[in-house]
Amino acid sequence: MQALRDAITSGRLAPGTRLPAYRALAVDLGLARNTVGEAYAELVAEGWLTARQGSGTRVAPRATPLPAAEDRAHRSAPPVRSPAYDFMPTSPDASAFPRSAWLTSARRALNSAPNDAFGVGDPRGRIELRTALTEYLARARGVRTAPHRIVVCAGFAHALRILGAVLGGEVGATVAVESYGLAFHRSLLTGAGLRTVPLAVDADGARTAELGVLDAGAVLLTPAHQFPTGGPLSARRRTGAVDWARANGSVVLEDDYDGEFRYDREPVGAVQGLDPDRVIYLGSTSKSLSPALRLGWLALPDSLVDDVLAVKGARELWTGVFDQLTLADFIACGAYDRHVRLMRRTYRRRRDRLVAVLAERAPHIEVSGIAAGLHAVLDLPPGTEHDTVRAARRRGLALAGLGDFRHPDSPMPPRDGLVIGFGAPPDHAFNGALQALCEALPPAL
Amino acid sequence: MQALRDAITSGRLAPGTRLPAYRALAVDLGLARNTVGEAYAELVAEGWLTARQGSGTRVAPRATPLPAAEDRAHRSAPPVRSPAYDFMPTSPDASAFPRSAWLTSARRALNSAPNDAFGVGDPRGRIELRTALTEYLARARGVRTAPHRIVVCAGFAHALRILGAVLGGEVGATVAVESYGLAFHRSLLTGAGLRTVPLAVDADGARTAELGVLDAGAVLLTPAHQFPTGGPLSARRRTGAVDWARANGSVVLEDDYDGEFRYDREPVGAVQGLDPDRVIYLGSTSKSLSPALRLGWLALPDSLVDDVLAVKGARELWTGVFDQLTLADFIACGAYDRHVRLMRRTYRRRRDRLVAVLAERAPHIEVSGIAAGLHAVLDLPPGTEHDTVRAARRRGLALAGLGDFRHPDSPMPPRDGLVIGFGAPPDHAFNGALQALCEALPPAL
Questions:
Q1: What's the complex ipTM?
Q2: B251 neighbors B218 (Cβ within 8 angstroms)
Q3: Which terminus of chain A, N or C, has fewer Cβ atoms within 10 Å?
Q4: Closest CA–CA distance from residue A280 to any residue of chain B (Å)
Q5: Touching check for B265 and chain A: CB below 8 Å?
């Protein structure tokens, strides 16, 4: 698209020139329709193109450009090239958002909201949502909290950013993190001046027994479904983490990013229930509903509520009140539970299909971490990860290798594998995506 | 409410005790209904109270409290005591939010949104909103920008916080600010490690001619309606600010917080139109629609877009996509213009009423800054501000004195006055509020 923009802005495409329909161009360039459509829309909005029913899209009579050259801004922020198939492990199925149920809740919430909902609100978030979350998290995740201990924020990243600033001042300079996890999350902590030290993980999750030797003020864990390796934290290690926190005056940060999606037995409750004063629970709607909502929450120990609010900024209620009120109604009326149940079935079906196709087409590849969540780990022969990821990307697959998640200081030997998110591809594209994936896998030795 | 909570949590109120209806209690305590209602709701949610149709609200059979004492958290975060009348200059009329028109746009926007709207989005914000803003800001405010130069954020505070971090690295350590302004805005800049130096203001706005001697890398201005003193920046001073920025390689931060509300002539266009490469335009819906939306925008010079996105966080789309799409539709379908016109009439009527009542009841008090916006300045005899503010607060009026906005290093002699926001009180309460205000004013000498 950059080439197209340059051709137009530089005048190489003469005014009046008719461009192909964006759908056709998308096919020609092998780009997603939305990518091309947005590029067209932006060029039209900026006056470079004119779109008219019937006469199609044409290069506009030269509009006076802005003082600064358009193209600079665009080279600096290149449009994302959407892959044919998205296997990134952090994406849910964007096509499954329950639009009409959400709108029903939005209407009910907005019509019944008190006037003060439209004024400057409580920095903790709307009481309606904090009340609904208190009930839901207790019922669905075993979280023990209360509305005044919950702080609503703009998703997990916002919550971790806030905690980074709080812990930076509170518990000293070091946070233990799982040796495999999102570099993006580690960077939010280091960005707050904290040091992260890796904690080894295995099939039973993080080896919390090793916390004792790490001298950390806090530990960030994904107990329900270790991200990305996929093991649930074992019962002994859960109590181990809490005992460690009690003994050291430390805190556990519980990232419950996909705790609702467990397939083969009842969801494992949150570690927070073991000690609400030592465990900070972090949740969001990014996996359960949509990352576009930018809605997350912290269930905090009493002693940290004020510090969190101080960092968050009392005058900066980052999350729009309407989505908060809508989610409160969405939870209270049962629509949230229904949606989670529906998606659990959908994702489970996809997981089973992934496992079946691999068993048939690539029996030599071991699949793990599939008891829960939206992603699986495909173990690869040592030394083959890098080439396999590149081969997959050449086939238009967006996916990640285990190496992308490894803590640079990890004491564990590198493990070769693919992290396959099966949430994002819409149903109609799922089989095609699996075929393309199998073609990218290394053959049996 | 703290007393009530303590009485219950400490067991001084026995289980089963019936409490008065919160409306009644609100009247007794002289608190806003919402304050009492929320406190009740919170106590119910926490299990301290039970609310049952017919049998009213009662103290619950002792629920097992959380490990940490409830009351600590509450003493630390005391409930805000809502005043009888809100004259704070930063609050619009929360009761005037166009609920049904907003819901209509929300339905249209959500139903027509592409699936990718529910995935992780463009950190600049949705293209639909940036396109709508480009057209609207050009038409209504004379802003010259383009969708790729706009970054959507969670309101003005978020935008200023981001710019503080960008400027901290970009243009050195000092930002000139108006000698009267919100301390909260100054603190966002100093929080980013910047130093603020005061620029004198008078009836023509900030004395931009004095920028030359300040050695600042940027200046934060409220050109449409100086906050709080109320003067519009004169034409000569507008060009003066831009010329200074060009000559020094500095930037102008234009806070257009209430530019749409001008009463006696056409709105003054934004300074940004004079030089889109030297002026950063900041706008939001906080005055025009509601601060609860948490929606704002930056119209940036090309050269700063990447830096702003880097600070904002590419993975942290702070603003919910639904409100962005809804606002885009709300602007495109003309509902935004209609609402602004309606509120302009409403606020103008209130301003005229304020002026009329003061002319009758307190002719010795001069009113200024009334050509635009949601607030006016009432000049007071030297030395009387502090006592007048206290007298007003005793009468249940929430209002601010000019002193609350004065830069600590301001070279100007202190000026005594009240800053009266006439936006917040709902229509039915406005006359009562004005009467209470007049009673609090010092008598003629």
A1: 0.81
A2: yes
A3: C
A4: 14
A5: no
- Most B CBs within 10 Å, among A315, A324, A331, to test the B interface: A315
- Below-50 pLDDT ranges, chain B: 11, 62-80
Residues with Cβ within 8 Å of residue B50, at least 6 apart in sequence: B44, B57, B58, B59, B60
Helix or strand run (H / E) with residue B187: helix B183-191
Contacts of B135 in chain A (CB under 8 A): 45
What are A134's two structure tokens?
A: 């208190």
In chain A, residues 2-31 whose CB comes closer than 8 Å to chain B = none
Facing residue for B119 by CB, picked from A94, A119, A277:
A94
Q: What pLDDT does B78 receive?
A: 41
Query: The domain at A2-59 falls in which architecture?
Result: Orthogonal Bundle (1.10)
pTM, two decimals, is 0.82
Q: What are the contacts of A242-245 at 24+ separation with CB within 8 A?
A: A242/A271, A242/A274, A242/A275, A242/A278, A242/A279, A244/A208, A244/A211, A244/A212, A244/A219, A245/A219, A245/A275, A245/A278, A245/A279
Q: Can you spell out the DSSP letters for A317-357?
A: --S-HHHHHHHHHHHHTTHHHHHHHHHHHHHHHHHHHHHHH
| The residue type at A269 | G
Nearest CA in chain B to A46: B146
CA distance linking residue B277 with residue B171, whole number of Å: 15
Architecture of domain A105-333: 3-Layer(aba) Sandwich (3.40)
CATH 1.10.10.10 region(s) of chain A?
Answer: 2-59
Q: Which of A46, A131, A147 sits opposite B146 (nearest CB)?
A: A46
End-to-end CA distance of chain B: 41
The span from the CA of A79 to the CA of A56, in Å, is 23
How close B5 comes to chain A (CA, Å)? 13
pLDDT greater than 90 at residue A357: yes
Cis peptide before A267 (omega within 30 of 0): no
Query: What is the CA angle A180-A181-A185, rounded to 5?
Result: 145
Fold type of domain A85-92+337-440:
Aspartate Aminotransferase, domain 1 (3.90.1150)
| Mean predicted confidence (pLDDT) in A81-88 | 78
CB pairs under 8 A between A and B: 240
**Tens digit of each residue's pLDDT (9 = 90 or more) over A224-279:** 999 999 999 999 999 999 999 999 999 999 999 998 899 877 777 899 999 999 99
Region(s) of chain B under CATH 3.90.1150.10:
85-92+337-440
Q: Is A214 a residue whose pLDDT tops 60? A: yes
pLDDT tens digit string along A296-342?
A: 999 999 999 999 999 888 666 678 999 999 999 999 999 999 999 99
